[in-house]
């Protein structure tokens, strides 16, 4: 495989890889058969879409892609118990995880119940005092005052806490990796149970909850009654799917596409308030969900009030929503400051250990448990290795990990817990959480490194940068970006197309904030494009482009439409560059 534009080591240390020759041929054939724009055909060819399937791919319909809820074990049982509780007007509690997926899952149930004239008690555990998932004290207290407890985005491994919920029925709606045995409760609905086929393993918890509500509405129809409108709930499902980094393929793609349309109607007070406080000035897209809305919803669970995100998403009161969104925005700013300090310390520590091992890890005294996951994510991105970051407090450490494609971190963490090297741990392929005794920290990380090495972690160099083709500045039009967006939404498992602009000259460069860079560039003709590179000064990219001295560069990144004062223009989200 030859290096694209002869770039074997860019300013961020990556090799540039261009589209395969067969992709080019397939794109040409698609264009002849469909008359679709060339850039769009290139994307469809890369995704393996045939000419016959192109129309349905570009317009994914939930009716065609939504799985039968009953194909998931325990689903019918869970929905009928839920409906029995509703018709008997029993007391229902929702126990939710403190992240976006947990908050949206809780909001789905609360909103549906409100449409039925009923209320539910929301319980979200405190990350620091209680940790992830159900605990015995909270479950016993909820069982004392409720008839049904629904655990969302958690609970699959919570045997003892669920056993403590005496006198109440418990339903688990989750997607985290299941163990060999399931907790003893009314129903565990989870496409990642060990006795499931794995066909729906890519669903986030909010999608599992949504499917349970689809099944509940179906059972109500069978009894000649109408359930609440489910399509209006898809904004919540879309937010969870993107924020939880679920792959945007199959039904997930349709859920997000429809959810973005619902979100654009601005009907949900919580999401409207959050969009406004995030200064979102265009129709929502996956970038907004993943980088503007998601982190703010998460901020409550990370460093503030654990239930704030779920309460914001489920409120129907605009002024209450506005106050909560403001608070989450403040917490998100605080979170960024805490994260920056932990990140600098973790980077330094991991660097001393070396980045060549199968696992990159760091542990520090008093590191805030609410930011270790984000810092692990940054370490993973910069090293192309699975990463674990742990905050130590007393005799224990609480940590979070992120993995790279092809390496199942959740299963390895679960094995470590079974071997007694962790107090507890679990998760899914790409992300996991753990609690470790301080005196077992080194042996646990050594063993985890061994397990990950067997899956091929540690063999890769810096991540290659995959490019979809070359563009000249004059060809990067608003119409082109609109064509590309038709094959979206983009995100995990469906990366946004990335283009290279060869041998361009930097017309303007300015540092923005601590580490970002704004530039504009052209090819010597009349066309000129603005670009923004976030975190450019964390690598060699920022300094090299800021002091360009008239040198020409190859630039690489993703195109987007910038809306300002009612006018639209193309902007490049710059990811990498190399001297031409």
Automatic annotation (TrEMBL):
Sequence ranges assigned to domain DDH in this UniProt record: 91-241
Biological processes annotated in GO: DNA recombination; DNA repair
Coiled-coil region(s): 321-351
Single GO MF descriptor: nucleic acid binding
Name by which UniProt lists this protein: Single-stranded-DNA-specific exonuclease RecJ
Organism: Shimia abyssi
Ranges for domain RecJ OB: 468-576
Domain DHHA1: 361-453
Key words, A-Z: Coiled coil, Exonuclease, Hydrolase, Nuclease
Matches recorded under PANTHER family: SINGLE-STRANDED-DNA-SPECIFIC EXONUCLEASE RECJ
Residues in the signal sequence: none
Record flagged with keyword Ligase: no
Protein family (similarity comment): Belongs to the RecJ family.
NCBIfam families: recJ
């Amino acid at each position: 495989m030859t290096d694209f534009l002869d770039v074997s080591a860019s300013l961020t240390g990556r090799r540039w890889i261009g589209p395969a020759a067969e992709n080019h041929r397939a794109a040409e054939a698609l264009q002849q058969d469909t008359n679709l724009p060339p850039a769009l055909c290139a994307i469809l060819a890369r995704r393996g879409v045939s000419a016959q399937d192109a129309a349905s791919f570009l317009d994914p319909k939930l009716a065609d892609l939504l799985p039968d809820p009953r194909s998931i074990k325990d689903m019918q049982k869970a929905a009928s118990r839920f409906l029995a509780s509703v018709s008997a007007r029993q007391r229902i509690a929702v126990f939710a995880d403190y992240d976006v997926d947990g908050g949206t899952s809780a909001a789905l149930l609360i909103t549906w119940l409100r449409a039925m004239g009923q209320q539910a008690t929301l319980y979200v555990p405190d990350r620091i005092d209680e940790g992830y998932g159900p605990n015995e004290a909270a479950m016993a207290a909820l069982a004392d005052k409720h008839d049904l407890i629904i655990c969302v985005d958690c609970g699959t491994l919570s045997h003892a806490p669920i056993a403590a919920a005496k006198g109440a029925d418990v339903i688990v709606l989750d997607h985290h990796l299941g163990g060999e045995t399931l907790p003893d409760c009314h129903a565990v609905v989870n496409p990642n149970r060990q006795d499931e086929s794995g066909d729906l393993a890519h669903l986030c918890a909010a999608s599992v909850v949504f499917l349970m509500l689809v099944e509940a509405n179906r059972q109500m129809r069978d009894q000649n009654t109408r359930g609440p409108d489910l399509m209006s709930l898809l904004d919540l499902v879309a937010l969870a799917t993107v924020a939880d980094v679920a792959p945007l393929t199959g039904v997930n793609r349709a859920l997000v596409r429809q959810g973005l349309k619902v979100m654009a109607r601005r009907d949900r007070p919580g999401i409207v308030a959050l969009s406004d406080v995030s200064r979102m000035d265009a129709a929502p897209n996956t970038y907004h969900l993943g980088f503007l809305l998601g982190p703010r919803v998460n901020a409550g669970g990370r460093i503030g009030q654990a239930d704030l995100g779920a309460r914001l998403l489920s409120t129907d009161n605009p002024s209450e929503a506005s106050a909560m969104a403001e608070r989450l925005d403040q917490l998100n700013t605080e979170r960024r400051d805490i994260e920056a300090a932990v990140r600098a310390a973790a980077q330094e520590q991991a660097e001393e250990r070396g980045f060549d091992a199968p696992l990159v890890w760091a542990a520090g005294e008093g590191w805030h448990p609410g930011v270790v996951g984000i810092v692990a994510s940054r370490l993973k991105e910069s090293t192309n290795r699975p990463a674990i970051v742990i905050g130590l407090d007393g005799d224990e450490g609480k940590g979070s990990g992120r993995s790279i494609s092809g390496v199942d971190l959740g299963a390895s963490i679960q094995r470590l817990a079974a071997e007694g090297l962790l107090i507890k741990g679990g998760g899914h392929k790409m992300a996991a959480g753990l609690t470790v005794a301080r005196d077992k920290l080194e042996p646990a990380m050594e063993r985890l490194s061994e397990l990950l090495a067997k899956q091929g972690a540690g063999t890769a160099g810096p991540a290659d940068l995959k490019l979809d083709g070359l563009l000249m500045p004059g060809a990067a039009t608003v119409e082109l970006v609109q064509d590309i967006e038709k094959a979206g939404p983009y995100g995990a498992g469906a990366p946004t197309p990335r283009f290279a602009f060869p041998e361009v000259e930097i017309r303007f460069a300015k540092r923005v904030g601590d580490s970002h860079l704004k530039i504009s560039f052209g090819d010597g003709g009349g066309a000129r494009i603005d670009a923004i590179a976030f975190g450019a000064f964390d690598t060699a990219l920022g300094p090299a482009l800021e002091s360009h001295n008239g040198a020409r560069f190859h630039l690489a990144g993703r195109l987007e439409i910038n809306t300002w004062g009612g006018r639209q223009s193309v902007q490049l989200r710059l990811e990498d560059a190399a001297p031409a």
